[in-house]
Design brief:
With 126 residues, this protein is an all-alpha fold. It contains seven helices and no strands. Helices cover 62% and strands 0% of the residues. It is elongated, with a radius of gyration of 24 Å. The termini are far apart.
Length: 126
């Protein structure tokens, strides 16, 4: 039992609830869902997934936007990665060996973590 007012989207984002659970006790919603499910059950499932994972999707989109923002920042081909002690030892080794041209390329190297990329962004002043 819920003792306070809450939007249905907030309730639906709870992992233990699904859209049919919400329709119990709300005849209008129940009739609507039955009608919609009869027309296109996939559409109803997709809507539920969108509501449940909206915050995760938004967070991932923000991360992708940050990454693409730094995609074309050039790296000096002669940069001494070994001198940046804030980088993990694996990142220093991989970056020194591979010599990426851009920050975007560096971010896709296995062994170079997001925190290593953050160190490079701070060092480059971006």
């Amino acid at each position: 039992m819920i003792s306070q007012k809450m939007k249905m989207a907030q309730l639906l984002s709870r992992p233990q609830l699904n859209i049919w659970d919400l329709s119990e006790g709300i005849p209008v919603l129940d009739h609507f869902l039955i009608a919609l499910n009869g027309k296109d059950p996939k559409q109803l499932e997709e809507a539920e997934i969108q509501v449940k994972y909206e915050s995760y999707i938004q967070k991932e989109q923000e991360i992708a936007e940050k990454i693409s923002k730094h995609e074309h920042i050039s790296l000096n081909p002669d940069f001494d990665y070994q001198s940046l002690k804030s980088l993990s030892s694996e990142a220093r080794e991989k970056l020194s060996k591979i010599r990426p041209n851009t920050l975007g390329q560096a971010s896709r190297i296995s062994g170079v973590s997001p925190s290593d990329i953050s160190v490079l962004i701070v060092y480059l002043g971006h």
